[in-house]
């Protein structure tokens, strides 16, 4: 029984991080507020108005779902990078690739880390600070993937922050890309 409980713990931890998004709770509060204001008028409003209201609120939730999923994945990866450990470099690389995909530049699975980093720097016009952070990040990813021991220095979170800040300045995302991030959408 304790083995079953231990196996379920990571799932519960992921679920609590996924649902605890501020945007999710703000949208829920707004929807419930609209319903609470209109609820005393239930006998005066026709049924189609209630159906329309539920369709609009449900559609709003569905429209925001990809951005909530992307935000949860991003936060999970950033927490792993901040915690350090053996998987920190991999989490940083996954977040960087996802940020690039959201901006329209995909990385082929056959690309090496250095080839992918060169492509990222070129396609997104990273500034010098972003390129410096990318060099540190690439070195740590290669060390963790191909080295004998995976050591993650404390400079990895700062390097990832430099690259992500450079991406935000030099390759800003459109509203559509923010609402429907490609990295969170199902692939064909």
At a glance:
The chain has eight helices and no strands. It is mostly helical.
Descriptive overview:
It contains eight helices and no strands. It is mainly alpha-helical and 188 residues long. Helix 2 (22-38) runs antiparallel to helix 3 (47-83), helix 3 packs across helix 4 and helix 5 runs antiparallel to helix 6. The chain is elongated. Residues 1-20 have low confidence and may be disordered.
Question: Segments where pLDDT lies below 50 for 5+ residues?
Answer: 1-20
Number of strands: 0
Tell me the overall shape: elongated
Derived structural class: mainly alpha
Largest sheet, in brief, is: none
SSE order, as H and E?
HHHHHHHH
Q: How much strand content do the residues show? A: under 5%
Helix content: over 70%
Radius of gyration: 21 Å
Oligomerization? single chain
What is the CA–CA distance across the termini?
39 Å
Distinct helical segment count = 8
Q: Let me know the average pLDDT.
A: 78
Ordered list of secondary-structure elements with their pairings:
Blueprint: H1 2-19, H2 22-38, H3 47-83, H4 88-102, H5 113-123, H6 128-146, H7 155-170, H8 175-179
Helix pairs in contact: 1-3, 2-3, 3-4, 4-6, 4-7, 5-6, 6-7
